[in-house]
Amino acid sequence: MHEGGKKASKLMSAILSGLIIVMIFSVSVAVPFLCRPFYYVQIQPLALTEASGMTEGQIRKTYDEVMDFCLGKTDDFSLSQLSWSEQGAAHFTDVRALVAWDIRLAVISCVLCLAAAAYGRLSRVKPYRFQGHSPGFWAAVCFSGIVLVIGVLSALDFERAFTVFHSVLFPGKDNWLFDETADPVIRILPQEFFQHCAGLIAGVAVLWCAALVLADWKAYHKHKEE
Hints:
This protein is mainly α. 69% of the residues lie in helices and 4% in strands. Strands 1-2-3 form a three-stranded mixed sheet. Strand 1 and strand 2 form a beta hairpin. Helix 1 crosses helix 6 (135-156), helix 1 runs antiparallel to helix 8 and helix 6 (135-156) packs across helix 7 (158-169). The longest helix is centred in the middle third of the chain and has 37 residues, at 86-122.
């Protein structure tokens, strides 16, 4: 099939939709790790100074040390303000590996999406528009559905969802179950914070999806008018 003098490829459309889904997911997941002020503004609302017996400055420094390790900015896990166990350090090492993979996926998927867009403009092949909609539209619809299902299940029982999440990402391990005595860092990383992180990830993903749907809506009506 040809559209506007170019061959419309269904395979290209399907691959591009998959790449966009990976890009939305990986970039959204990376946001809480890269946006440290998101944590800082929750120190007082979550009463972390009272829970930990630390000052806000000490809490920020400790969180920065954890994030620096998880983002690969430091080689060895170490906390200047708190003690930690080998089991706790092992969990953060597991998290570090997952974060590295997520950032790689984000970069690779973004580069491939840009390359696909450039290829579509310069070559005689373009993505096929299923039912008149772009690959971005279908990626947004599919991913929004996934976010909706996970969001509803998490809202119904976040503690259960939290446990399932860790069981899937860290199969066969229980070092994510921290003992406050051995790893007091957990006092400044309460479950409520991770719940807010999940909300941030979902919010960023929904904004991505909304932008893609809006762009497709404009292109769709422009195409109909022409």
